[in-house]
Design goal:
The protein is of the alpha+beta class. 22% of the residues lie in helices and 38% in strands.
Length: 192
């Protein structure tokens, strides 16, 4: 585990999952949940990437994160629940939601942004990378200085205290990346 030298708490664990574990979860999400089939509605069109969520049963049953606003959601599968427990054990935090985004190749990405609270506290977000490694950028909101990191298959980056306040992050488009990537961000529901 390495703590990045930034004006925020950001940790990077390159080998959080073994290559076998990472491949197993990637295939589970891709095959069992067809993540590539669920496009995110953006304005008057749709994204070029897939998005689903895994959520706690009570949130799902109460329809607190409706599909028209947040996309397709599923109750945690056993495999995803085990992964969630592993992340909770490492971090000491509880998570009720996992946002899962599929990027088919390097022609899909996301520009600089931060994660404002939408349905819960975003001051602590573990983000797991599966599949193709990709460049990840953190840009200081004030100085505009950029920190570059390669997110490897099975790696975990934890965006903690002051990260969303002080930084924006980006997954830049780069056509040299030819394979798919799944990003899992573990989120809190509510503000406790």
């Amino acid at each position: 585990m390495s703590l990045l030298d930034l004006e925020a708490h950001v940790e990077y664990i390159e080998d959080f999952l073994t290559p076998e574990e990472a491949k197993d979860i990637y295939q589970h999400i891709f095959i069992e949940f067809n993540v590539d089939q669920y496009r995110l509605k953006l304005g008057d069109g749709f994204s070029d990437f897939g998005k689903i969520m895994f959520i706690d049963k009570d949130i799902h049953q109460a329809n607190r994160l409706p599909e028209f606003a947040y996309g397709k959601s599923f109750i945690w599968s056993d495999k995803m629940a085990s992964l969630k427990e592993k992340i909770e054990s490492l971090t000491g935090h509880s998570f009720q939601v996992c946002v899962c985004i599929y990027y088919p190749d390097g022609n899909s990405g996301v520009d600089f942004h931060y994660d404002p609270p939408s349905f819960g506290d975003t001051s602590y977000i573990p983000s797991l990378s599966l599949g193709e490694e990709r460049t990840f950028l953190l840009r200081n909101k004030k100085t505009r200085n950029i920190h570059e990191l390669i997110l490897r298959d099975g790696s975990l980056i934890i965006m903690g205290d002051r990260c969303q306040d002080n930084y924006e992050h980006c997954l830049p488009i780069n056509p040299s990346y030819k394979n798919g990537r799944i990003n899992l961000t573990f989120r809190k529901y509510g503000y406790n």
